[in-house]
Every structure is written in C-alpha cells, then in structure tokens.
Amino acid sequence: MPQLQTLFSTPSPLFSTALPFLSSISSEERTNPGDELFIMQEFSSTVTHLVQSRATAPDEGGLLSGKDPTAYNPSDPLRIWIIQIGLIIGLTSLLSIILKRVRQPKVIAEVLGGIILGPTAFGRIPGFTKHIFPEDSQPYLSLTANIGLCLFLFLVGLEIDAGIIKRNWRLSASVALAGMTLPFGLGVAISYPIYTKFIEAGVAWTHFLLFVGVAFSITAFPVLCRILTELKLLDTTVGIVVLSAGVGNDIVGWVLLALSIALVNAGSGLTALYILIICVAWTLILLFPVKMAFKWLAMWTGSIENGPTLFYMTAILLFTFGSAFLTDVIGVHAIFGAFLTGVIVPREGGLAIKFTEKLEDIVSIIFLPLYFTLSGLSTDLGLLNTGMTWAYTMAIISLAFVGKFGGCFLAARYLAKFSLREAGAVGALMSCKGLVELIVLNVGLSAGILTQRVFSMFVLEALVLTCLTTPLVSIMYPPHVRKLVSSDNPESKHVESSSGRKKKAAQNNRKRRFTVVLDQLEHLPSMMAVTQLIQPASPSPRLTRILSPVTSMQSTAVNSSTESLSDPSAVIVDAFRLIELSDRVSAVMKSSATEYIIHTDPVLSIFRRFGELNDITVMPALSIVPFDDMPQSVSEHAHTQYSDLIMIPWLPPHITSPDDFHSAAHPQQQKPKQSTPGEMRHNPFETLFKSSHTGGEKSASAVHSQFARGVFGKAKTDVALYVDQCSPGLDIPLGRRQHIFLPFFGGPDDRLALDFVIQLCENKRITATVVRITKAELEPPKTLREIENANLLTVASAISTNFPDTVYGQPNAETRLQSDTVDNLAWSKYIKQKDEQARNPASPMTRVEFRELKTPTPLHTALDEASKPSSLDPERNFDRGSPSVQGERVDRQEIEYCRRVLVVVGRSRRLAVEYHGKELKDLMHKHGPVGSEVKKTIGDVGAAFIVAGCGIGLVVLQAAHDA
C-alpha cells in the first residue's frame, strides 16, 4: 500500500507507539500463537488510526474542508486577528475620508468605527460579535493595541518641545492654569452624584473623583496641534498662546493620570507614596543622565546630521519599552514610561521629526485605530436608555465645556487682555478632548473605576466636544479678524507702508517684487532660470542680504529691505516654500517648527545660495497647509507682501524614454515623427477609460495643474506660470544670453506679457521678438457667444477631481471694445518708443524687434515665426554648406533654434480675442495629442507651443482681474 510505504519510509509517530508495545512482550510470550494474533490485531488498528490521522491533518481548519475561517483557535489566533484588523482599518479609513470633508480629526472616525462595530450597531446583528470579535480573542487585540498605545505616547512625547512653553509663557501659564482648575473643580462637583447613582459600592469615591477631574481638565495636545495647523493659526497670537498652554496642560494631565493610577493600584496611602517617590526618581533619571546619554549616542552615531541610524532607533525603542515596563511594574501605567522617553529624545538637527517619520505610519495605520476601536467596542450607547442617564450625560457635556471654555476664556480676556473673539477662540481650542481623554477613560475602565454605562457617557462627551472645536473656532475667529504675530514687528509695518510703492510700480508697468513659489525640488532649476532672467542688467554693488522672518534677524531684514526699495533697479524675490500638510504627525511637528525648517530646508537653502551668487535679494517664507489650501495661501502671501508678480512652476506631462535622451543628444539623427488620428489611441480600453499616456492626464502633472489653476483663480495680483520644456540631456545656456518670442494677440493677459518682455529686455543679455498676429478670416467668423463659450469657462473633464476652475465674469461688447482700444494704445506706445530710442544703446527697445502679421492660421504662423532666427539674436548664424544640403540643414537648424527660444504668451482665458480651438485640434493631429489639463491650465496659445515642442520654456501670464 502506498500509504504504508510512505509511513515506514520516514520517521513517524507509529514507531514511538508500536516499538515500545512490541518490546514489552518477552520472547516467550511472542512464541504463543494466540498472543501473536492479538499483537497483530493491535498493531493493525494502531497503523490504521495513524494513517487516517496523518491523511486528515493537512486539511484541518481549511476553508475547503468546510471549516469556519472565523472560528477562534487559541493556538493560531492570526486568522481571526487579520479579519478583525482588516475590518477595523477599512471602516475607520472610510469614515475618516467622509469626516475629513467637514474638517473633523481622524480620532473621531476611529472611535465612531468602534462604536459601529460594537454593541451599539453591528453588535446587535445575531452572531456578528461571536464570530468577528469573540470574547476569547479580545486579549490579543488588547495586547496589540497597548503596544501601539505605548508607541503613540512615545510619539506624543516627541511632539512636545520645551521651547514652545517659553513663548509667551506668562500668558500661556495663566490660560493653562485657569483651564485646569475650573474644569477640575466642576468635575469633582458632578462626580459625587454620578458616583452615588451609577458606580458600584466597591469603588472608592476619591479614586472616581480623580479620574473625572482629570477627564474634565485635560486637553488633547496632538489633536490641538493639527487643528491649529489646518486653520492656519500657528502664526497668530491665539495660536502661540494656545500651543504653549496645551503643552503645559498635557504634561500636567499625564502627571495627574499617573497619580490617579498610583492611588488606585496602591493598597494603602503609604504604598501610594512609595510609588510616587519611585516614579519621580525615575523621571529625574530620565530627564538628566539618560537625556545626556541619548544626545551623546546621537552624536556618536551621526543621527543628528544624517537622521536616526538603525542602531540608534533600536536603542531608543528598546529603552522605550524598558521604561514602559518599569513604570508598569511599580504601579503606574506603561504609557507614562513611554511618554517620558519621547520627551528626552534630542531635538537638535530635527532628530525628533525624523524619528517620528520612521514610526508614525505603522502606528497611525494599524496600532492606533485598534486602540480607539476597542474603546468603541466597549461603548454601548444602548445603555443610555433612561431619561436620568441622558440628563447626566447632558450635564457632563455641559459642565465639561463650560469649565474648560469658561476658565480659558476668562484668563485670556482679563489676564492676557485678548479681545472677545480671541478669548473665545482660546476657550474653544482648549476645549478639545480627543484621544487623550479616551486614553484616560480606557485606563479607568480597565482599572474598574468606571462602569460601561459611565464610560459610554464620557466617550459621548469627548466626541461632542472634539467635533465642536473646529466649527466654533471658525465662527469665533474668522481669518479677517486674526492678528498675526508679525503684525507687531517693524518689518511688517514697513511692508504696510509699501503700498505707495506698489501703486507707483503699477503706473510705470515695472515689477520689482516677485513671489517665487517653491513646492518641489524638481521645480527648482526652472525657477532659478526664470529668476535669473528678471535680474537687473547692472545690479548695485552691494552684498546680498538674506532676509529672514526670524525675530533675531529683524533689524538686518528691515535695513536690507529698505536699501533694496530705495534702489530703483533692485529686485526683491520672496521665496515662498510650500509644504503639504498631510495626515502624518511629522507634518504637524514641522508646522510648529517653521523657524528651524526655514533655515534647514534644502530647497530654500539652495535658492538662498542662488540669490547670494547672483546678487538677488531673497526673502524666505514657509507655509505648511493642506493641498486644497495651497492656492489661497499663495494668494494671501503675495497680497500681504505686496508682490507685483507670482511665479509658479509646472512640468507638463510628457514621456521620458531612452529615445528622448538619444534624440536630445543627437538631434541630427532624429527622425520626423508622423502621427495620425488613429495613432493617438492604440488601445480601445485606453480610449474608453482615458488611461493612455498620450491622451489622459498624468496623475502628478494633473494634480499640480489643479494647483496652478487654483492660483490663477484666487490670486489678486499678476501670475506667471513657467512651463519647463527642456528635453532630457539637452544643454541649454539659459540665463547667459537668451532670446524671447512673444505672439501678441490682444487682451489683458497679452498686454501684461508685452510689458513683462520689455522689462526683461532691460537686461543686455536678453533680446526679444514681438509679433502682433491678427486673424484674416477665410470663413465666416465665430459668433461672440461661441468664443465666450469656448474661452470663458473651463469645463472639468469626467476624470478630473472636484477642484475649482478659473471662471470669469461675463464680458460685454463695450468691455471688449475697451480692451481692443487698450491693445492698440499699448502697441502704439512701444512702437513709438522704439522709434524714439533707436539710437540709444542703453534702451531696451534696441533689443526688441516688432512685427505685425495677418494670417488665417494664427497658431501655425506663431509657431513658424518662433522658429525663425531674429536679427537681434547673437546665436542666429547658420552653418551654410553645399546647395544640395543647404535647405535640409537650414530646416534642421530652425527646428533646433525653435527649441532654444523662450516663449512668452498670455493665458487668454479672459477676454480672448480669437477662438483657436479648431486650429489647436489640427496641431494635435499633426504633432500628437495633449491632455485636457494642459489646455485648461495655459490656454490655447500656450497649448499649441507645448504640442509642437517649441521653446526651451514657456511663460504663461495672467493679469490681475482688475487689469
């Protein structure tokens, strides 16, 4: 038999059973025939049993064998754990996406997810809790959640910076003290009736009193930081005071929690005293010798300069769990030891932020949702089933809010001398409970101090107060009444007085102050190139000052700014660094450490050094905001700094392949690329789902185009978008000698482009060709309504996100006539200046060539004119060869010239003179398609140059709406 052959060929439990049985029989007994028959029968039954058990072992618990995959197995709990964690993370993520739209923190989604999965909702489905969350599996979930809680409290300790407390510590101390004493007193007052009504007799009232007082007086510092960052309050007086008060409140709250746990775990008052003495001693050991050891280890491993090494992270994490173990065995919760370890990690070199970036994802994605979902599983809102219970619940919510809001409001109003709106914002922000109170409540529930009914009442209170924080602050402290910290600085007052300079600059069409948006490292070369072009021809002989908003450098900044403004040829560049505020804790930590990041950020550091080398005054600034708020942040910064022009970069969607590098390095070997409409979509499914790289938008470029369109729509000043078209591997000497081509069609955007080109030509290294193109109709012209429908509104595509597009007011015939009149006046003015200053070599008009053309195909004509070398271009000479190859060489060199020219166009989304949609489609059939995001972002004229690949770069300008 094959089974027996396999059985005897390998070691098997058969031998451990049969051999002792056979050896126990003596040789005399084996000679008895009856005994031999008995032995063979026993041996056969043993073999049959082992073979059957061996055959069925691999299928034990398998889905195909009919086993329940959700059945709990103590020896293998991984299966049910995966089911539980998948359900928890999926539901909380879905709720988080929904609640994020109403600006609610993620902790609300996590607790609500637990409540939905618990006995309140899904738990009422027959068999749900028994199969998904059986009682025997709870210890494994609890173990995982508590490991994550220790790591989370370690991250909370990393967030706390002692330097924050030093800012306005007098005002912050008064707010923090009043925000803890009054709610603690109200918590003590309501604790007695709750204790007599709902708490079991075995619990001491003093223990319950402490937990209620701590729950009433504590503020959720991590949630508070995120709310301050999302509402952009960190640079306001309210934000700084609340942040400092929140740090102090958080530290005192954890100390009170440790005291409460020590009293609960101690059998007598003397034991509690010993626990507190040991806890204080361990805290002092951590704050002094261990903290110095951590700093030495960080320097020895190079973690401060290069980020935490693997060895350093291993040592810190081992010490974190060791500290948690020590505080747990002495009678204080393990989270206190983990929290203290996070506090003593060195802050030098941004080490705490880098350490947080290493751990936060696994903690926030897996561990933390488990903990707060367990809180929701322990919450049964069905227990709030009587009028008396709801009365006490409403009393808890009201007193918790009144105590926290009232105490902080009174301190801010009468001690800090804040206005009513500012004091109200302070009170609303400090009322945020969030995850910290939930941790306190879970500790009380696990210690037996709180019953499930009382626990549910306090969880509901924490959810309500946390949900109310953001709406209350938005109502009480709207953006137009906020007082920035820098408004009291001399630098900001100087900026206020520069409004007259802005009006004067607007009159002579000269731009002196530029806001350069820096959001990604790959955009830095293009922004440096275009910034170098706006540099004056003869910069003043002075050392460049690198202006900084930091208080310690205010005097230097003011003096340098005053000197720059007094120089009529000086250019001031606001290097505005944008960082997206993500859901990560490290992003929030960066937002509260802008003074450090503004000096260490690599993008700003490179741009500052670029300014030093080119004698350009650079004023660095930093903003950490959500992606949807980035356009508004750029607009507000430019408006506050009275910027004349906002410059933003954009890399359009393109294909980078080895062929691109080869064609760039060897243009003479490049074969002409023919494309037909049929070649635009090779795959019918790509056409259906718009997933092709040729027609569909690239995700990264489409997202950035939404940002650019947002700036176009929200900006209150002129905007320039620089589109980098430099081919891979192509060496272009941009910034030394450059020729510019401007097709002038008319409208406010084209007039702005004309003024901008004339200003650039003040630099002797720059020449320009300006061609005014008028359409000569060969067919009946488009009606005014058709032009408006094509150019006025941008209709979002089916796959675009819900991002607002640029929509302008409805023009009328009178407005268009006025615009045409201004076009003629602007053109005539520069033509006249060129005639008058033709013999003045210092005049920029000697470096500008003006031409006028009429054509039925304006876009094709613009592309042809851009490829023709100008007589003003120093690099216009062609290498003439034999007549047989002369035409081919000239055509190839014209293509190469077209690639090296810098094209400047108007966006022409507002008051467009001509409709170019049909001609643009012809160009797309000839050169290949382009994504709809390109046309929406830069307009038809700019899209034509992108399609044709003409120009090393493309500058698209949009005039302010009042232009």
CATH architecture of the largest domain: Up-down Bundle
The low-confidence parts are 1-15, 25-31, 54-59, 487-506, 539-563, 655-697, 790-809, 877-890
Oligomeric state of the chains present here:
single chain
Give the tally of β-strands.
Answer: 10
Fill in the CATH topology of the largest domain. Answer: Na+/H+ antiporter like fold
Shape: elongated
What gyration radius follows from the Cα positions, in whole Å? 36 Å
Taking the sheet with the most strands, its summary is: 10 strands, mixed
CATH hierarchy class name of the largest domain: Mainly Alpha
| Spatial arrangement of strands, main beta sheet | 3-2-1-4-5-10-9-6-7-8
Tally of alpha and pi helices: 40
Look at the helices and sheets and give the structural class. alpha/beta
Polypeptide structure, described:
With 963 residues, this protein is α/β, with parallel strands linked by helices. It has 40 helices and 10 strands. The protein has 3 domains: 77-481, Na+/H+ antiporter like fold, CATH 1.20.1530.20; 511-535 and 569-654 and 699-724, HUPs (Rossmann fold); 737-872 and 896-958, Rossmann fold (3-Layer(aba) Sandwich). It has a 10-stranded mixed sheet with strand order 3-2-1-4-5-10-9-6-7-8, with helices on both faces. Helix 34 links the parallel strand 6 and strand 7 (766-775). It starts with a helix and ends in a 5-residue tail after the last strand. Residues 486-509, 658-682, 852-889 are annotated as: Disordered.
